[in-house]
Specification:
Blueprint lengths: L2 H25 L2 H8 L3 H7 L3 H12 L8 H4 L6 H17 L2 H14 L2 H27 L9 H17 L1 H4 L5 H4 L4 H17 L4
Helix pairs in contact: 1-2, 1-4, 1-7, 6-8, 8-9, 9-12
């Protein structure tokens, strides 16, 4: 694909993100996407087969479904479960934080609708992350690196909930008096420190 085509496709995707986030899949109009992208409808259908194809492209542009295949996360020789756990959480947090407001709106809509796109997000994104965290905790417990009285599945769910709910709640508190308090400067680093502190207590990790 030539650079001009790539630039046009990028413009269409950016416009589609805004429209799908605001109106959802059903109410989103291709005419509005074309208007924001400053292209005609024919150009959109040149790059994307139909509205659903464009929506899927938007979802894939928001989520790095292959982030768990990152070489750094899988190069584990000589590393402790704790080190790998921290890298995995950091990678997931950075991934979900990117394009937060529009992404949050789409996640909320899909969670409510539980449609086809939600199934893709769940099977390719949420469940693999959950299983990676849960397996690391289980391995750490079995080797004696971790010690906890908590159910590993509940503990994993708490971690996922901490990360996911915090970021998708941004759209709820946007433009409210609470937003600056919940999302201060460097909020990502502060949230990560909070999660690490929580995990250290739950897994009896010495500082």
């Amino acid at each position: 694909m030539q650079q001009k085509d790539l630039d046009t496709e990028k413009k269409i995707l950016l416009a589609a993100r805004k429209v799908f986030a605001e109106f959802g899949f059903g109410a989103a109009r291709i005419d509005e996407i074309a208007k924001i992208a400053k292209v005609n409808k024919a150009m959109i259908y040149y790059h994307f087969k139909n509205k659903e194809d464009l929506y899927l492209a938007v979802i894939h542009s928001f989520f790095d479904f292959d982030f768990l295949s990152n070489e750094e996360l899988n190069h584990v020789e000589g590393k402790s479960c704790w080190e790998i756990l921290l890298k995995t959480i950091h990678s997931f947090e950075k991934n979900i934080q990117k394009d937060n407001i529009e992404k949050s709106m789409l996640i909320c809509r899909e969670m409510v609708s539980r449609g086809q796109i939600f199934q893709i997000m769940r099977e390719k994104y949420w469940i693999p992350f959950f299983e990676r965290i849960q397996n690391l905790i289980q391995k750490g417990i079995s080797t004696g690196e971790f010690s906890t009285s908590e159910n590993p599945y509940f503990l994993t769910f708490s971690i996922v909930a901490h990360v996911v709910f915090y970021y998708i709640s941004g759209v709820t508190y946007k433009d409210s008096s609470l937003y600056p308090k919940l999302f201060p400067e460097n909020y990502s680093e502060k949230m990560e420190k909070y999660i690490i502190s929580f995990l250290k207590k739950q897994l009896n990790i010495e500082s």
